[in-house]
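chain below, 1679 aa
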Amino acid sequence: MDEKMDVVPGYTLDTIVRQGERAVVYRGTSADGRRVIVTLLRSQQPSPRELAELRHAFDFGREPGSPAVVRTLSLETSGDRFALVSEDGGGRFLDELLGTPMEFGRALNLAVGIAEALTGLHARGVIHKDVCPENLVVEPETGHVQLIDLSLAARGPYLSPEQTGRMDRPVDARTDLYSAGVVLYQVFTGQLPFQAEDPLGWIHSHLARMPRPLVELQPHLPAVVSDLVMRLLAKAPEDRYPTAQGLLVDLLNCRQQWTLNQRIEPFALGASDALGQPRTPQLLPLREAELEQLRAAFERVVATKLPELVLVMGEGGVGKSSLVNQLRSTVLDQGGLFLTGKFDQRQEAPYAAFVRAFQPLFLRLAAEDASQKARWRERLDEALGASGQLIAGLIPELLQVTGRLPEVAPLAPADTQSRFLQVFRQLLEALTEEHPVTLFLDDLQWADEASLRLLQHLASHPAPHPLLILGASRDRDRGPSDPLVLALDALQKGQTRVTELTLLPLSREDCTRLIGDTLGADPGPLAPLAALVCEKTHGNPFFTLQLLSALQRDSLLTFDRGRSAWRWSAHRIRALELGEGVIELMLGKLRRLPALTQEALTLAACLGATVELPSLIAAGGFEEDALRVALDVAVREGLLLPHLEGTYRFSHDRVQQAAYALLEPDVRAATHLRIGRRLLAHTSPRLLPERVFTLVTQLDQGIELIDAREERIAIARLNLLAARRARTASAHAAAIRYLHAGQALLAPEPWAVDHELAQGLHQEEAESELSAGNLDTAARLLTVLLDHARTPTERASVYRARIDLHTTRGDLGSAIDSASACLRQYGIALSPQPTLEQLEEADRTVAQLLGEHAIEALLSLSPMRDPDMEAAMSVLASFLPTAYFSNPRLHHLVACQMVSLTLQHGLTSASTMGLTAYGFELVITHKQYARAASIARVALALVERHGFVADEAKVSLVVGVALLSWVEPPRSLYTYVERALRAGRRAGDVVFVCLGLTHRCMLALAAGERLEEVDRAARTAADFNRGIGNEPLLLCVEVVQRLTQALRGRPPALPHETLEEPAFAERVSRQPPFASFWFRLRRLELHLVLGNRAAALAESRQLSGLIVAQRGQYGEAHAVFLVALTLAAHGEEAPAEEQAQWSEEFEGHRAFLGNLAAFCPANFLAFNALVSAEVARRHGRTGEAEEHYEQALRAARESGLVQYAALAAELAARFYRSRGLSTAADAYLEEAWRAYREWGAEAKLRQLEQLYPRMKERLSRALPHHLYAEPAQLDARAMVHASQILSQEIVLPRLLEQLLRSALEQAGAERGCLMTFEGGHPFVRVTAQLTESGIQVAVLGEPVAPGAELPGSLLAHVQRMRQPVLLDDASHPSPFSPDPYFASLRVHSVLCIPLVRKADLAGMLYLENNQLPGAFTSERILTLEVLAAQAAISLENARLYQAAQEAVRVRDDFLAIASHELKTPITAMRLQVQSIRKVTGTQAPDAPTGGRLVTLLGAFERQVSRLAYLADDMLEVSRLKEGALALELDAFDLSTLVREQVDALAERLKATGCSVELDFEEAVVGQWDRARLGRLVTSLLLNAMKFGAGHPITVRARVTGDFARLEVKDRGAGVDRADQARIFERFEQAAPAYNYGGLGLGLYLARETVRAHGGTITVESALGAGATFVVELPLRRAP
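prediction:
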């Protein structure tokens, strides 16, 4: 930028002081002649952050009369740019004075000035947070220093460790002292304590590097000054000066000595710190045992991933919250999430503590940058689906992340609670991303029932992330019916671990320690004071501290500075009357506050433990600035704590109680009412729903004071709104409370005066009572509602609720009566016991309404317009499940009625349910599978076309498991089940999510998926069903799990019994019939597969009676098939009378399967064929049996039903073996083996091995290896893919060095080591240490086992658990404290991370920072875990590379040895052949024998020659490895050489059917190595014979300029262009070796021979067009 001055109206700018990236600083003059400093932002469109910083800078200096701060004058604009104007006292910015070391006396004066400025600033309660030379203004003559905030500093060099964001430490006044230390280091030495090139380097320096002492750089400096600055630069805030005042005292001492003596004698630094100043005590040492129990609970949760509840009990003020909050750092260090919320005695909104726990998290996510926020929005949308508004209704801050959310679809009362609980779990899982979660719920004694239910749900259901729930509750007598007692009892009776910790008041000794810590003095002399205080407070810590504060305030406790001791008035303390204890004490403190502060605190106490500033302004009608000042007083007094932005919270419950006690009881109701009215007046209609709980909490406390009818009606409507929102969130008790309040506001005769509102309040109450399980109360309310209903719509709402009520009670008759009564008002007659004639009439009505139109004509129907018919359809839809379970004929009639109403009056969302129910009846009653399928597709199309999303899950599931399962293969049904799952999740319809997951795993089993995949799907379904508490479906899924485990031969993974144990059967028997159906079906399937004939027969009899429970669904066909197959295959073993009893049933099953096979062969031909095969076998019709077995096997294979293909093949093998046809039997047994292996039934394979031991080896050999890749192969493929993505170092030593160096820089560590595993044991490969010159890394030549230089117990824990371990301060007690390493050394921050590649532990990364406790944070763990993941992959890549290099070396050694060793036996074999030829030549000829012998000898001789050729190739390769080929050059004709080689190969050419065409125009003479070129020509000819057998070969030789050109052309398959370069490499071939043989060395040696001569070799080819190899050789080799 040029030096041209900017223009700010009203100011003359004359000097540029500094130019930054975001602003320019000028000196100039105002219009009235005052000298000013002007900071002008560069941007014409500054960001909100820049404007906020400028405003902060202005506020920082606007308070007059502070000599420590440069006074700010105004904020100005210059066009579109903003400027800050400050007073210019003529001083110079410190950065202008720095460069070389300053003269010591002057530097000391400057240090005193900086300390004085910070002391003055901190006295105002202000922290600068940006102390640097650019923000320090120095008066050169006097050394006076002022602070300014220009928001321009390059903060990297001056950041404190806690400002880096890498430490879990608050930023307090000591952060300014660290920055001042950096400045003073520059002042005294002329240089910064650290040097870095980028922000990461600065962060690492501040966290891990120790600066050199000043005296090493400037030996003339007094040692005490060097020590003083080094103390300021301590990494841990507690190791620095506690206050700027203490720093100032020591610097003044230094200056005084220097002025008087020109030297400074050593003295104790910090001796004056905090003398007589009470400080915040630490309760931790007094509660270490209890804290250790909390840590142990957290470690257990992390290790087991099983949720736990720890309840901390104790009286108010005993330190429960303080104790729990001490666990926060442990959780954060483990990468966890620590959420905290508090229940409130004054705020009755449901889930209050959960709301407060998640509000800060949502606000933090909303403040993320756009990309991160979009990621969270996507993640939350996926987790919450269409149910997000359930959470947003309670926690509106969620909308700041997700944007507007759709309204939630209504569900049956029984399902709303399950939906809410599940959605909340999904929210928690989405937010935590598998990190451990600690949820602290404070003041549980005030928790509402809905919150306790949610707490119980979260604590009793395992989740993907570890969850520790901490609760704090006051000790009080709780009866057995207390909701908290009931919740705890339920958890303790289940499998949840519940721990109760009771905190007792402090003992006299502990009270003395606490007082000593608070007063910063030796506890011994304070024992008499402690005795007095403890007597008054009974050892309550909060009371004790408040009393100490009051004693100081009233001068009953003072500090005698002359004697440096505390003094107190014992008799006056003993005479104190405290009345109600700490409340009385707090009241006294509050009454001393300014009147406005008292009023603000009183209203805040009415609003709750946490209050937002805008709400408080509205509630009290305050001016914002005045209120802020009033609240600042409360903050300084420790009564309020700033919470979220614009939010405050009371520092303790007792403070809130005392503030509320300022209100006289007789004005409290009026105060709450006034607050409610003011808040309502300031609430827009748009925000009313999200603030309604706060409003009614205030307004309802003043109901008795409201006279105006209009206001009473308005507040009653608010209570109705609050009740509906509470019931949506399953907070039924809260909803009922709001409804009672609303009803109390109505007129004496509400049904006549306010009928609509009365009806709404009572209807909502009835449904809330029904949802809460209070059925008698709900029944009474519904009767009242029915008596006062005026319209059919009102009555329909009541009847729908009555249907739900009666169905819940199991009183299906009354439910039918309610439905009939409701429908009669719409002219619809519903017979409770329909006759066959009525069903036929209903079917005819539907047919007539459809007429000649196809089912698809329904797609063109218009929406239903008649509200009465819509209400009737809604009632019929809600009645469908009741009808199905009460009377199948009634279900048929209701389905027809719904279709008829749709055809007559148009479409409504219930129409899709009616259509699927009608399609179901077509399947069950009429076996019209194709027509049912058409209806199914129409129903799905209607859902999509009209957006009937509320019913999408129900329709999709019925379509998938009932209507289309007869016409589409099982695997295609996944689409519909997945659609049902997605829709169910979106709508929060947990029942259909449970059903969808259950059917997904059962369909996978039916479809023949690998048992491993089935088991995986079953685990997912089981986890969800268990979480929801759906016991019947959970049992169905556990049945599948037990079946897969039994067939896979795996040990039980479930805590319950196996399929065969009576206890499990007894559990099933207590559930609905469908659970027994699936239980019996799976047992029968297991017995059939394992060949347990008698058990299978017995099980088939049990299953037969249950098939009706699955009529119309895919399970019916499978059950009929298995029962029929059992009877056909093993029925002959039963007594004759039993067989006679079965015959009719069996024939019915056969007919059913035959019809199915004819209708849909793809699904059912295998079933029918296998049963038919067994029938034919029993009756001796062998030909028919053979045909059906083969048909069954083929059909099962084609349909993908691998399990039934295996069973068919096994039964066929049994059939053939029984007839003595072992060859055929073995063939079918092989097929069974293949199919069982493909299915994953390892237990069955072992059974076959035992039954047919001689077959085992052959069966194993018969398997196609390509189908079963080993895990190592799969890992290698994944590794290769990953290595293509990651650009990592591949040489192992360099890789290890790079990884450890990166880890140290990322983590801010000063020491580290990287270990890898060999034989399951860790070995140190690399070590690193931070030194003055940087990070020094040592790669060990030989890896060594960890020794005394590392904590062995910690390493063993990480190796065993495969989880990171983080110690904030290893010198403090921890599970690893006994380790000799920690016991012998003072170690601070420790981090150890496992390097895991898939399931394998590749290594461990160990890091230390001994300068600073808490140096490694949870955020760093996340970064390092990413680095660790990359490291694990890279280590594997490097190891494979190293192994490959070693393999190449071994291979080359083998080639060298083998090529030499093979020469001797090859020579011997050749001599033996020659000897045999001589012997046979001297014997009498025997034509047949001699000819045969000659042929064999020729073949043997050719193979020996081939072996010799390969040995020569191997020898050549080994020579090439040692160096370039040595050539013996000679002049000869290449054409002649080619002819010689062709002649030598004549027999082989003949054997391969190849002729050779020679094309030589002239002699091609050059200087070459004759032997090597001969091998080259031979190699090319052999290659042409190999790939072009049966075709001619053409060889050409030409002279082209200074080169000879040799071409060898074959007419074989050709070489793919992609392979043409590769084939010249070692051990490479264009075609697989098993097709053509060879080692892949010929072309490689040819290339090397040509290169040695200075020539080239290439190939010209295309697939299918043969190949031409072209060799170009220089006629004369260059010297």
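Residues 376 and 472 are 31 Å apart (CA to CA). The longest helix spans residues 1418-1482.
thats it, cya
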